[in-house]
Amino acid sequence: MLEIKCPYCGKRSQIEFSYGGDAKLERPKLGTEVSDSEWNEFVYYRNNPRGEHLELWHHISGCRQWFKVFRNTATHEILSTSKIDEKIK
Ligand SMILES: [Zn+2]
């Protein structure tokens, strides 16, 4: 079982958290014209990286804050965590 360090609460069991996706994914800006294929790409297509990956996680059973986790998807090692507005690697 993984332990994840919430930047607000400290280390907690993985079962308290929910994965929120790729933290580097950018939503198209509001008010800009986006083609159906661009929107389809944004909504449905994701990379499945092996190795270091920056992710969003939600402390759903704790403080309910979103934060970033820099993690190796091959080894499951968590390299660092940070608040959503903090710079990470
Ligand atoms: Zn928390």
What does this structure look like?
By secondary structure, the chain is mainly beta. The chain has a single domain (3-26, 37-83), classed as 2-Layer Sandwich (Folate-binding fold), CATH 3.30.2270. The chain contains one helix and six strands; from the N terminus they run βββαβββ. The protein has one helix at residues 36-44; strands spanning 3-6, 10-13, 18-22, 52-58, 66-72, 78-83. The chain is globular and about 40 Å long. It starts with a strand and ends in a 6-residue tail after the last strand. Residues 6, 8-9, 59, 62-63, 65 line the site of zinc ion.
What are the main properties of this structure?
binds zinc ion, Folate-binding fold, 1 helix, two-stranded antiparallel ribbon, single chain, mainly beta, 89 residues
Strand content: 35-45%
What is the alpha-carbon Rg in Å? Answer: 15 Å
Report low-confidence residues grouped into runs of 5 or more: none
Helix segment count? 1
SSE pattern: EEEHEEE
CATH superfamily: Folate-binding superfamily
Task: Look at the structure and give the mean pLDDT.
Answer: 94
Q: Specify the structural class.
A: mainly beta
CATH architecture: 2-Layer Sandwich
Output the CATH topology: Folate-binding fold
Task: Compute the number of strand runs.
Answer: 6
Relative helix content: 10-25%
How far do the termini sit from each other? Answer: 25 Å
- Strand order, largest beta sheet: 3-4-5-6
Number of domains: 1
